[in-house]
Design brief:
The complex is a heterodimer of chains A (about 250) and B (about 700). Chain A has about 250 residues and is of the alpha+beta class. Chain A contains nine helices and seven strands. Chain A has two domains: about 5-115, Ubiquitin-like (UB roll), CATH 3.10.20; about 120-250, Alpha-helical ferredoxin (Fumarate Reductase Iron-sulfur Protein, Chain B, domain 2, Orthogonal Bundle). A five-stranded mixed sheet of chain A has the order 2-1-5-3-4. Chain A has a two-stranded antiparallel ribbon with strand order 6-7. Chain A starts with a strand and ends with a helix. Chain B is about 40% helix and about 15% strand. In chain B, α17 (about 570-585) runs antiparallel to α18 (about 590-610) and α17 (about 570-585) packs parallel to α19. In chain B, strands 5-2-1-9-17 form a five-stranded parallel sheet. Chain B has a five-stranded antiparallel sheet with strand order 11-15-14-12-13. Chain B has 20 helices and 19 strands. Classes of the chains: A alpha+beta (about 250), B alpha+beta (about 700). Chains A and B meet through α1, α2 and α3 of A and α5, α7, α8, α14 and α15 of B. The structure holds flavin-adenine dinucleotide (FAD), iron/sulfur cluster and FE2/S2 (inorganic) cluster. FE2/S2 (inorganic) cluster binds near residues 60, 61, 62, 86 and 88 of chain A.
């Protein structure tokens, strides 16, 4: 037989960017423990629609932990209490019968609320636009096997490149710093010969964009890496710092 | 009318054939010395050319009934080079004055927008998500094909072309597929230059794996996150252009219509999803790369926002919808487990490299497993039926997807399915772990195993995974010619949204290849052939009546939806449509079932337009309204899929009609009758669409029955 639980969901509701928000609590019964957290919210929304109320707005798309669209602060943790997962991969078996679950949007200066649990994360795109790329045009590039790359470096670059741009790092940080996100990209490209050419300029451009957009400074609390659903390691921040110092020395 | 035209074509052909025969007979009589022989041979050749021209002309005159794709002349391997050598180009100074709208930021859209920006065009790029990096392409797991032959295992451009044509069950256009195989290698070069961290061997060179339908290792991959890494590559190129100002990015926007002025696409109408405002955008040309329509089935492996709406909008403005019934059911997805379920999760095809698929040999074992009385690990090897290895010894677990899906269904229908529903089979890594060790298996598939464990709460290192087929990809889509132009001038369609390269079945790791081929290496060329003639066209005002009318139609539709104020949520109606699609337009179709589907879909459509409830306001962020607009279009697509499936009285690739199968249950094509692309033309609301045909001529490969047994 399917196992179910009864829960209360305490959700942040906010009609618009400038509106004043508040928590509302909803009761939800017979929630299958096999359903995902977002499926639980679907069921709650279905209930709200039946009561002719506006459903709760939240971001999501792939629902398999890869697009980085889902967010949510659940019981005080970005992406909830389970480790190494995004909110969409979190399952209700992680919660107890009778529990009250608190759901909030990302709270970060640089991610303003759009509605309810949906926030504006375009600041991350802007940081990428400042330099998160190798400047090559389509066509006219060498054969893919022309430059051998050690498996070790390729694998580490891949680990860094696993960042899904969800924003949990900045949301988890008491300073609201985007350092882990920036470090993941800088580090990925610094580990590959293709990316090294522009390494110093990239680190500088992305960091100064980060400051400009109102993200805070990194004070090495490590909260970001602890909450990152993709286990992006703090060692990338160390590499970013090295790249940045090199850039400064070149000035 | 149509009949008359068909007769005309037949008469013309008959006359042409008669002439050729008469000439041939004469040649046989008179050819006795070398000089005459040469002369009559020349006459013969000329006559044959004339006959061919007459046939083609007749088909073209029969306008509308046949569609031609503007395939360049010459041998297969030279067509694309010939095209590029002779096409028109736009000079740099003029490029800046030409606006191009690109809708979509998946692999196809992002690569096209970035490349067009680099060339100097003024690009406007749209997507539904909050960032271009989140397009559904991000979820592709397994890999991307290319004919590099780095493994020295006998691969070549021709072999990739051949495998793709064969995999598609001879329902794809030869010239397009050859071009795809040709540019595949450049894609890998491009991605590596961007810093895409593909998997490598210890020597530092790129690694490959195998995918279904191929006997070589040509698939490049980045762990189980290939789509993510390729999309981030394209996204980085796009970000660079946004920074430079050549591309203007519109996120959280949804296209609601294409605007056609004097027969040419000149812009779009889009809804700002944050404010609810309807906005108008002009461009000299419009490129649509909005992905596939698999979500017509409600439950699919597609992302939640994946939709078929742009395709329906183009179709209703006159672009043909091609082969809508060609949809791919992927064999390895996590089985459905509850009514609350919102989507299905794919387990990558790459798992079939090392996993072995089986069900119990004995019915009583299957029953015991279903009742929870036995565990799969308790079934000894000799009582396991590795049915793919048994039925298809040459390809084994790596048969193409359509074949693997049907084989799973066959076993489950016969009563050997597992899981409490009986709708699942096992994918077992025990053997791979014994052979390679747990570490190697973890390095190859770790993230997929983790994903499985989080969803199912079972450890696939210790007990076999359970899998079942699910809808995954749509080969059908908007019809495009060789230049990727739709039947509306200036309107292009790329990526999964078009119908082009995969025929009736797509091979694994070929969608990423096609999306990037279209966006990086094909469209940026072909669109210039059109734009070169547009340099004199000044930017148009969006106050034109065509824009106003398109916007009004959308406003009316939204008002109508908002005012229904019924009792049903959008999702509840969408689920209903999905069940009909799965039951009658899914893995096995029949004339009777399809007729039932058409009737039932009409009922659901009626329910939708009379009982849906959309809370909130239209002038605000309104997710229910967004979903309702998409569902309205899925209902149209469902109908088209069923109609097309009913028309296609044959089994080929992913389209399986129960009436057309061999005694062993394999698909039975009807080449004499259905060697064509079905192109559906919209004839007005409530009217039956008209069927046009693009004939598929196989000049360079001989059509065979697909055989994966020997
Ligand atoms: C789970 C999964 C795994 C896969 N794995 C593989 C694999 O290993 N190898 C492989 O080759 N293929 C794979 N595929 C298939 C492949 O991922 C897709 O076919 C391909 O990524 C589609 O790319 P696209 O650019 O055409 O569209 P998408 O990536 O779907 O992008 C569509 C874009 O259009 C936008 N859009 C849609 N509608 C509108 C609108 N109305 N207005 C504005 N914007 C709109 C969206 O926002 C998005 O940006 C997989 C598919 C799935 C579902
Ligand atoms: S570093 Fe981690 S938490 Fe930060 S955006 Fe990337 S995946 Fe999310
Ligand atoms: S919805 Fe895509 S990561 Fe959660």
């Amino acid at each position: 037989m399917e196992k179910t639980i009864n829960i209360k969901v305490r959700v942040w509701r906010q009609a618009g960017p400038k509106a004043k928000g508040a928590f509302e609590t909803y009761e939800l019964n017979h929630v299958s423990v096999d359903s995902s957290f977002l499926e639980m919210l679907d069921v709650l929304n279905e209930q709200l629609i039946h009561e002719r109320k506006e459903p709760i707005v939240f971001d999501h798309d792939c629902r398999e932990g890869i697009c980085g669209m889902c967010s949510l602060y659940i019981n005080g943790h970005p992406h909830g209490p389970d480790s190494s997962v995004t909110t969409c991969q979190l399952h209700m078996r992680k919660f107890k019968d009778g529990e009250t679950i608190t759901v909030e949007p990302w709270r970060s200066h640089a991610f303003p609320v759009i509605k309810d649990l949906m926030v504006d994360r375009r600041a991350y795109d802007k940081i990428m636009q400042a330099g998160g790329y190798v400047s090559v045009n389509t066509g006219g590039v060498p054969d893919a096997n022309a430059i051998p790359i050690s498996k070790l470096n390729a694998d580490e670059a891949m680990d860094a490149a696993s960042c899904i741009g969800c924003g949990a790092c900045a949301a988890a940080c008491k300073n609201g710093s985007a350092m882990l996100f920036v470090a993941a990209k800088v580090s990925q490209l610094a580990l590959l010969p293709q990316g090294q050419v522009e390494g110093a300029a990239r680190a500088k451009a992305m960091l100064s964009k980060m400051d400009e957009l109102g993200f805070g400074n990194c004070t090495n609390t490590g909260a970001c890496a602890a909450e990152c659903p993709k286990n992006i390691s703090l060692s990338h921040i160390a590499r970013l710092n090295r790249e940045y110092i090199c850039a400064k020395l070149q000035d | 009318m149509a009949k008359k035209k068909e007769d005309m074509v037949d008469t013309a052909k008959a006359v042409a054939n008669k002439v050729v025969k008469a000439v041939k007979d004469k040649v046989a009589q008179v050819a006795n010395d070398d000089a005459t022989k040469e002369a009559v041979e020349a006459v013969k050749e000329a006559t044959e050319k004339v006959a061919k021209a007459v046939k083609q002309a007749a088909e073209t005159i029969a306008d509308g009934d046949y569609v031609t794709a503007k395939i360049p002349e010459g041998p297969l391997a030279e067509k694309w080079n010939n095209y590029k050598a002779h096409q028109k180009l736009v000079n740099p100074a003029n490029k800046r004055r030409l606006d191009v709208i690109v809708v979509g930021t998946g692999l196809a859209g992002a690569s096209a927008a970035a490349s067009l920006g680099e060339l100097g065009f003024n690009v406007l790029n749209f997507c539904i998500q909050d960032s271009p990096r989140r397009a559904h392409s991000i979820a592709a797991q397994g890999g991307i094909n290319a004919a590099k032959n780095y493994q020295n295992d006998g691969d070549s451009v021709y072999r990739l072309f051949y495998d793709t044509i064969k995999g598609g069950d001879y329902r794809a256009r030869e010239s397009n597929v050859y071009r795809l195989a040709e540019v595949s290698n450049s894609i890998i070069d491009q991605c590596v230059a961007q810093g895409v961290p593909f998997a490598r061997e210890y020597g530092g060179l790129l690694d490959n794996r195998s995918f279904g339908g191929a006997q070589v290792s040509r698939t490049f991959y980045a762990k189980g996150q290939t789509g993510q890494q390729l999309l981030l590559g394209a996204y980085s190129a796009l970000s660079r252009q946004i920074h430079k100002g050549t591309v203007k990015m519109y996120t959280r926007y949804e296209m609601l219509d294409v605007v056609v002025v004097e027969g040419r696409a000149r812009g779009i109408i889009a809804r700002n999803l944050v404010t609810g405002k309807i906005e108008r955008f002009f461009a000299h040309a419009v490129v649509v790369g909005t992905g596939g329509y698999g979500n017509a089935f409600f439950l699919s492996t597609n992302a939640m926002a994946s939709n078929g709406s742009a395709a329906v909008q183009m179709y209703k403005k006159g672009a043909y919808f091609a082969n809508p019934c060609f949809a791919q059911i992927h064999p390895t997805c996590i089985p459905v487990h509850g009514e609350f379920q919102s989507k299905l999760t794919l387990m990558s095809e790459s798992l079939r490299n090392d996993g072995r698929i089986w069900v119990p040999k004995k019915k009583e074992d299957a029953e015991a497993i279903r009742a929870g009385k036995k565990k799969p690990t308790e079934i000894p090897d000799e009582d396991r039926d590795f049915y793919l290895e048994r039925r298809y010894p040459a390809f084994g677990n790596l048969v193409p997807r359509d074949v693997a899906s049907r084989a799973a269904k066959e076993r489950c229908d016969a009563g050997f399915g597992v899981n409490n529903t009986g709708l699942a089979v096992y994918l077992d890594f025990k053997y791979a772990i014994e052979r390679l060790g747990r570490d190697v298996v973890e390095a190859r598939y770790g993230n997929l195993f983790q994903m499985y464990e989080k969803i199912v709460d079972d450890n696939p290192y210790e007990t076999p995974m359970m899998i079942f087929p699910a809808i995954h990809y749509t080969m059908g889509g908007i019809w495009v010619d060789y230049e990727l132009q739709t039947s509306i001038k200036g309107l292009y369609c790329i990526g999964e949204a078009n119908f082009s390269d995969h025929g009736a079945n797509r091979l694994g790791a070929s969608a990423l290849m096609q999306g990037l081929a279209d966006g990086y290496f094909v469209l940026p060329y072909t669109i210039q052939n059109y734009l070169a003639d547009q340099i004199q066209v000044p930017r148009m005002s969006t106050e034109l009546k065509e824009f106003a009318e398109a916007e009004k139609a959308i406003n009316d539709k939204i008002d109508k939806l908002m005012s229904v104020q019924g009792k049903r949520s959008v999702d509840s109606i969408h689920r209903e449509l999905g069940l009909i699609m799965w039951d009658f337009v899914g893995m096995a179709r029949s004339a009777e079932g399809l007729r039932t589907a058409l009737k039932k879909i009409l009922d659901v459509k009626k329910t939708f337009w009379t009982e849906v409830f959309i809370p909130g306001s239209r002038n605000d962020l309104n997710v229910e309204l967004e979903k309702a607009l998409r569902l309205a279009d899925f209902l149209e697509i469902g109908e088209l899929m069923a109609r097309d499936a009913l028309n296609r009285e044959e089994s080929c690739g992913g389209h399986f009609r129960e009436e057309y199968q061999t005694p062993e249950g394999e698909a039975l094509r009807q080449d004499d009758k259905f060697s064509y692309v079905s192109c559906w033309k919209f004839e007005g609301e409530g009217q039956e669409p008209k069927l046009l045909k693009e004939k598929l001529e196989y000049e360079f490969v001989a059509r065979q029955t697909r055989n994966y047994k020997a």
